[in-house]
């Protein structure tokens, strides 16, 4: 399929630069620090990875934009976007190929944290079903971040601006389900509105999956979120054609 041609091209691009390895190293180091030190892993005396996964939304706020900021900005800045669009690929093929490459790359970084999973099994007897569900939820959430980043990267030629825009929009999607925010608006908005507000948040659905329940509602949320933002990416590319 044509999508896989784009996917292969993009994956090679990620691993052809030192940025990919720097990103993976930073992600692994920060995951360990947040889990075993800031997350008070040993003090809690519980064999689980709650501290590890609870920091993922905040890690992704800065690390995922670093992956996605170059998806379209670099193409436009170097002048290769016009060439790419003239190849016998549909815009859908290109958008999906780029997204899947970034999502797989994020998945590789997440997969490399498996020593933490092994460690918690060595130290105790965790519920591995819950941990597996949390890994799936984290990867789905990373896909949501990347889809937002894809659209923000298509908006501008500047990778820095794309990074800032992605971080800001993603921050809004995270904070929409943050307890402090929900408590603040619960007093002056109808409960139904508060529930709708919370349902738009990464945290609401990721936390649900992290409890070990892979519900259709949560899966549909992330699939829909990715579909909406990738569609927006395609629209932005069409609007900026030739600019």
Structure, explained:
There is one protein chain. This protein is an all-alpha fold. It has one domain. It is 82% helix and 0% strand. The protein has 15 helices and no strands. It has helices at 2-15, 18-38, 41-44, 50-54, 56-68, 70-78, 80-86, 91-111, 114-123, 128-155, 159-175, 179-186, 191-199, 202-210, 216-239. Helix 2 crosses helix 8 (91-111), helix 5 runs parallel beside helix 10 (128-155) and helix 14 (202-210) packs antiparallel against helix 15 (216-239). The longest helix has 28 residues, at 128-155. The two termini are 29 Å apart. The model has no long low-confidence stretch (mean pLDDT 84).
Number of domains: 1
Number of strands: 0
Radius of gyration: 19 Å
Mean of residue pLDDT?
84
Write the layout of secondary structure elements.
Blueprint: H1 2-15, H2 18-38, H3 41-44, H4 50-54, H5 56-68, H6 70-78, H7 80-86, H8 91-111, H9 114-123, H10 128-155, H11 159-175, H12 179-186, H13 191-199, H14 202-210, H15 216-239
Question: What's the short version?
Answer:
By secondary structure, this protein is an all-alpha fold.
């Amino acid at each position: 399929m044509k999508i896989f041609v784009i996917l292969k091209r993009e994956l090679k691009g990620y691993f052809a630069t030192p940025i990919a390895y720097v990103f993976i190293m930073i992600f692994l180091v920060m995951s360990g620090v947040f889990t075993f030190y800031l997350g008070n892993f040993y003090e809690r005396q519980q064999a689980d990875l709650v501290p590890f996964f609870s920091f993922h939304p905040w890690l992704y706020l800065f690390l995922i934009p670093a992956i996605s900021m170059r998806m379209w900005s670099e193409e436009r800045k170097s002048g290769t976007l016009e060439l790419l669009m003239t190849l016998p690929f549909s815009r859908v093929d290109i958008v999906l190929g780029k997204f899947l490459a970034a999502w797989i790359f994020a998945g590789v970084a997440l997969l490399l944290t498996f020593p933490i999973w092994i460690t918690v099994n060595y130290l105790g007897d965790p519920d591995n079903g819950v941990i597996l569900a949390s890994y799936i939820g984290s990867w789905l959430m990373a896909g949501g971040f990347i889809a937002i980043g894809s659209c923000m990267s298509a908006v501008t030629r500047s990778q820095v601006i794309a990074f800032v825009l992605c971080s800001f929009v993603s921050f809004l999607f995270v904070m929409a389900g943050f307890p402090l925010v929900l408590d603040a608006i619960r007093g002056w908005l109808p409960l139904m509105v508060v529930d709708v507000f919370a349902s738009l948040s990464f945290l609401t659905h990721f936390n649900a999956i992290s409890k070990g329940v892979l519900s259709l509602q949560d899966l549909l949320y992330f699939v829909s979120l990715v579909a909406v933002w990738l569609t927006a990416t395609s629209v932005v590319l069409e609007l900026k054609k030739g600019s």
